[in-house]
Amino acid sequence: MRNLLFTLPLLLVLAGCQSAYYSAMEKVGVHKRDILVDRVEEAQQSQQDAQQQFKSALEQFSSLIKFDGGDLQRMYEATDSEYQACSKAAEDVSARIDSIEAVADALFDEWQDELEQYSNAKLKQDSAKKLAETKRQYASLLKTMRRAEQTMQPVLSSLKDNALYLKHNLNAKAIGALKGEFNSVQKDINLLIAEMNKAIAQSEQFVATLKQ
């Protein structure tokens, strides 16, 4: 209960800030639908960037298990740097999806409320039908995005474990122990890329629908 009392005012403030932002944007001709399109496209870019970052981490891991003499400390630092970059990329993807949810909820609430303002029954029915279809497409997109988002977590866990293990075992034996992890990480990253490609493709279809 104490946590609820603390977080509820914060949520109300954030909701108020969002409402003020949407109102300000509408005054300059940018509506919630436009903002939703922008945020979906930003999420696409974020997912593409994340794909490249995870590919880079896999390349570093491949170099690590092929290590044959040299500065092992530097190799650890490069491995840890790739993990940190992947973690940041994953956080950005999650934040982008959260921002999509926020504006989509506001858009659909507004759309639903404005249905009651129609005096023409035919136009009202047509708008209600479009709302239902847009919500259906959005729900499917959000599900696909969240599924792609979840595929990042196993990879991040593995990359973190590898970096930590290497940090405390800077020797050739540690490299040998990590070789067995490569195929699993590669498989998880390939799955991540495939799921993100699905989300990106579905995003493009959704944006096209919104722009009609």
UniProtKB/TrEMBL annotation:
Pfam families: DUF2959
Cleaved signal peptide residues: 1-24
Keyword Signal annotated: yes
Top-level lineage group: Bacteria
Keywords: Coiled coil, Signal
Listed PROSITE patterns: PROKAR_LIPOPROTEIN (PS51257)
Name listed for the protein in its UniProt record: DUF2959 domain-containing protein
Organism, as annotated: Rheinheimera aquimaris
